[in-house]
Amino acid sequence: MEKKRRLSSLKKKIIVFVILCWGVPIAVFFAYTTSSYRKGIIEKTEGLMEDQLENMASFASIRIEDAITLCQRPSYEKTWENAWKKYLRGDYSRNDYLQDVYTSLRGKFYLDERFNMYAYYCYGTEDPESFSSRTGISLKSYVDEIQPYLKDVIDSDSAYACVRVVDGRIFIVRNLYTTMDYTRYGTLVVELNRSKVFQDVDTGLLNDMVVCFGSRDARVDFVKNEEKSDKEQLLEQLLQKYDGVGNHTFSKAEDATYRAYLYQERRDDFHIGIVLFARKSELYSGLYQFYTIVVLMFLLLIPLFGYVVYFIRRNIQHPIDRMLRASGRMEAGEMGITVEGDMPNQEFMQMKESFDSMSAQVKYLFDSMYSEKLARKDAQIQALQAQINPHFLYNTLEYINMEVYSNHTKNASMMIQNLADFMRIGLNFGGELISISKELAHVQAYVNIMNYRFSHKICFTSDIPKELLSYEILKIILQDIYILL
């Protein structure tokens, strides 16, 4: 038997249909919009950060280059060179020579807020001959704490300005040579005022910035002490990418809280690298606001989707369930059943009325057919009873009684068996049709009974092809045979 295929419910199909035709397009739209908007915000933010880093590096470099130019000016003005030459010729005493240098230094660097300190070395001396600081650092502190880190430049034979960072302080070191014969006569060391170098940088950004000059160890760290531990790992990742030679290159790194950027730029006299940290919550605040709006819209759509489900259940599922229950009860035998309650809409109300009408008609037809069937069965029983020859039945029973009385129990048993077969086949459970083989068995049972009564004087034979025995005919159609007998 073929297995009946299990069908899915209409409710599930409708919900899936609503999701596919309503929920999926909205989800795809929001996903596409969110992805596009996110990509646009990230690209725009990355571009702004790169521009900002480039501008900060450019402004700081310009101020450092201005300071380097100012350190080169004494060579072009020859004030210090002439004083040194006069000292060599004996026209100046050492004090006169240093006084001219001191006067020039004070006018150029001490009164300029871009500088915190200056130190002037006469060629061949270990310590500065002229020193002054606007930050209160003493000459001894400078010699003990700063000078050892500048010694290699001071002792080198190069006229190029060198930018050095010592303990987060920015220094420019330049050896001084005569313009004509390139003879070394001194060294100038100045400390730059960091706040002036980076005065164009917003304070909020400055506190999230680290600046390197030439190497990852020569850096100026503006990050607040309480935040350094949080940013240390990101800083190390980016400093690994700082090579001191890259020009206009950007690198990035991020963790769960911060996103960091490294910009490198090569200048004529130094190399600068700026690391800038930005909190993701601030960097992508516009994106997070958009996410919030999207989430709120989805939350607003949830009640709407719930109402759609409620609408489907109330106006489609519940009426269908009630009609299915009524149909099931009718199938179980409750004729004339009606659909309970009122329907929520006109369409289902028409279906309910049609079902109730159909159910009433089916009950009427069923009752009529049942009554007719009972009447027909009664008539059939009466016809069957009329078909049996009462004399045949009486005679057979009388003969069986005689056999039993004569103690011929075997003959009596056989006659009872044949009589039972005769009656069973004749009744045929109320059916109108009977197979030829059964009809022949019915006749044979009659003949057997008669042979017991008349000492087997009756011979009954049939010549019917076997393939016809299963064919059905009207029952007791061979009745005339044994009536004639």
Topology:
Elements: H1 10-77, H2 79-89, H3 94-110, E1 115-122, E2 130-133, H4 139-155, E3 162-166, E4 169-177, E5 184-192, H5 194-197, H6 203-206, E6 209-213, E7 219-221, H7 225-239, E8 249-254, E9 258-266, E10 271-279, H8 280-283, H9 285-331, H10 346-387, H11 390-405, H12 409-427, E11 433-435, H13 436-453, E12 472-474, H14 479-484
Antiparallel strand pairs: 1-2, 1-5, 3-4, 4-5, 6-7, 6-10, 8-9, 9-10, 11-12
Helix pairs in contact: 1-9, 2-3, 9-10, 11-12, 12-13
The counted number of beta strands is 12
Radius of gyration: 59 Å
The coarse overall form would be rod-shaped
How large is the share of residues in beta strands?
Answer: 15-25%
N-to-C CA distance: 49 Å
One letter per element, helices H and strands E, the order comes to: HHHEEHEEEHHEEHEEEHHHHHEHEH
- The main sheet orders its strands as 2-1-5-4-3
Query: What structural class do the secondary elements suggest?
Result: alpha+beta
Unreliable residue stretches:
none
Percent in helix: 55-70%
Largest sheet: 5 strands, antiparallel
Mean pLDDT: 82
The number of helical elements comes to 14
Description:
This protein starts with 9 loop residues before the first helix and ends with a helix. It is built from 14 helices and twelve strands. The protein has helices at 10-77, 79-89, 94-110, 139-155, 194-197, 203-206, 225-239, 280-283, 285-331, 346-387, 390-405, 409-427, 436-453, 479-484, and strands at residues 115-122, 130-133, 162-166, 169-177, 184-192, 209-213, 219-221, 249-254, 258-266, 271-279, 433-435, 472-474. The strands form three sheets. Strands 2-1-5-4-3 form a five-stranded antiparallel beta sheet, sandwiched between helices. A five-stranded antiparallel beta sheet has the order 7-6-10-9-8, sandwiched between helices. It has a two-stranded antiparallel ribbon with strand order 11-12. A hairpin with a 5-residue loop joins strand 6 (209-213) and strand 7 (219-221). The radius of gyration is 59 Å and the shape is rod-shaped. By secondary structure, it is α+β, with helices and mostly antiparallel strands. The model has no long low-confidence stretch (mean pLDDT 82).
